[in-house]
Amino acid sequence: MGVFDGKVAVVTGAGRGIGRAEARLLAAEGAAVVVNDLGGERSGEGADQRPAQQVVDEITADGGRASANYDDISSWDGGAAFVQQAVDEFGRLDVLINNAGILRDKMSFNMTEEEWDAVIRVHLKGHFVPARHAAAHWRAVSKETGQPVGGTIVNTASESGLYGNAGQLNYAAAKAGIASMTIVLARELDRIGVRVNAIAPVARTRLTEDLAGGAMEAKDGGFDAFAPENAAAGAVWLASPLADGITGQVLKIQGGVAQIMGGWRPVTEVTDDQPWSVATLAERRDALFARSDPGVPPFFPPVEA
Ligand SMILES: NC(=O)c1ccc[n+]([C@@H]2O[C@H](COP(=O)([O-])OP(=O)(O)OC[C@H]3O[C@@H](n4cnc5c(N)ncnc54)[C@H](O)[C@@H]3O)[C@@H](O)[C@H]2O)c1
C-alpha cells in the first residue's frame, strides 16, 4: 500500500534533478504521474523530449504508471494541456508539483532584458499557469460534487529568494514571488479543500553543480545529503495526506536539516501620535534597529559581474 494509491499527480520539470526524484517517489508510493519536461538547457534554451520520456520509462520499469508531457509550462495552452492530460489519461488530478526552473545569473548592472524576462517567465508564470488550470479544474469538481476536493499543490521556492542572493536578481525575485503566491493560493483554495505549500530545496543538480565548489558531492559511504531524493521527500510529504492540515507553508530542506521558514513580519516597532517627519523617524532609528537578529545569513558566493 502506497500513500498515493489511486491518486494522480503532475510534476513540472520532472525530466531531471529534483522533479525527477519527486515523480519517481510519487510513483513508488502508488500515484500515476504525468511527467512534464520541456527538456531545454540550464538557461532554458532548446527542447528535447528524451528527459521526460526517460523518467516515464524508469517509472514503468519499476511497475509504476506514468505518461510523458513535453509542454513549456509557462505557456497558457501548455499548462492547460498537461493538467487535462492527467484527467484524460488517468481519470483525475490530485497533486500538482510546480518544480520546473532555469537560471540566467548576472549582477543587476549586467543583466539583459531577455535574461530578466526568461527567468521571470519560467518560474513565476510557470508556477501561475499550471496552478491556475489545476485550481479551475478542482473548483469545477468541487461545485459538481459539493465536497472539498482534497487536492494539493507544492511550489518550489529557494533560499535565494527568501534571503536575497547577489547575482540572482531575476531568480530571487521570482522565487520570493513564488513564496508569496503560495500564501495567496493557500488562502484562495482552502474553501475547496486544496492545500498549497512550497519547498526551498538544496540539492546537487545541473543548476547547482558549478555553484557550490564540490561541497555537494556525495561522501563515500555516508548519507548523501545533497541527493535530489532528499529534497524531493519534503515536497512529496507536503503533497500527501500525511501533511493534512498544513497549508501556506515553506519547508526548507538542506541535507539533514528541515526548517519551516517565516515570512515578512514586524520585528521592531515605534509609535507616535504626530505625523511622521524625516527628523522624527531619524530620531527613532536606534529603536527601530534594536534587534538581536544577526541579519541576513550567507548563501552561495555571488557570481562574477
Ligand atoms: N538544486 C537546488 O539546490 C535548488 C535550490 C533551490 C531551488 N531549486 C529549484 O528546484 C527546481 C528544480 O531544479 P533542479 O535543481 O532540479 O534543476 P534541473 O535543471 O535539474 O531540473 C529542472 C528541469 O526543469 C525543466 N524545465 C525548465 N524550463 C521548463 C519549462 N518552461 N517547461 C517545462 N520544463 C522546464 C528542465 O528541462 C529541467 O529538466 C527549480 O525550480 C529550481 O529553481 C533548486
List keywords for this structure.
single chain, Rossmann fold, 8 strands, 13% strand, disordered C terminus
Kindly describe this structure.
The chain is an alpha/beta fold and 305 residues long. The protein has a single domain, classed as Rossmann fold. The protein is built from 9 helices and 8 strands. Strands 3-2-1-4-5-6-7-8 form an 8-stranded mixed β-sheet, sandwiched between helices. Strand 7 and strand 8 form a beta hairpin. Helix 1 packs across helix 7. The longest helix has 33 residues. The chain is globular, with a radius of gyration of 21 Å. The termini are far apart. The C terminus is likely disordered. Bound molecules: nicotinamide-adenine-dinucleotide. Nicotinamide-adenine-dinucleotide binds next to helix 1, helix 4 and strand 6.
Derived structural class = alpha/beta
Relevant CATH superfamily: NAD(P)-binding Rossmann-like Domain
Average pLDDT over all residues: 93
User: Please, how many domains?
Assistant: 1
Q: Please describe the biggest sheet, giving its number of strands, its sense, and whether it closes into a barrel.
A: 8 strands, mixed
Number of contiguous helices: 9
What's the total number of strands? 8
- Indicate the CATH class: Alpha Beta
Bound molecules: nicotinamide-adenine-dinucleotide
CATH fold name, please?
Answer: Rossmann fold
Looking at the overall shape, the CATH architecture is 3-Layer(aba) Sandwich
Low-confidence spans: pLDDT under 50, at least 5 residues? Answer: 298-305
What is the helical fraction, as a range of percent? 25-40%
Radius of gyration: 21 Å
Order of helices and strands: EHEHEHEHEHHEHEEHH
N-to-C CA distance: 52 Å
Strand content: 5-15%
Strand order in the largest sheet: 3-2-1-4-5-6-7-8
Which term fits the overall shape?
globular
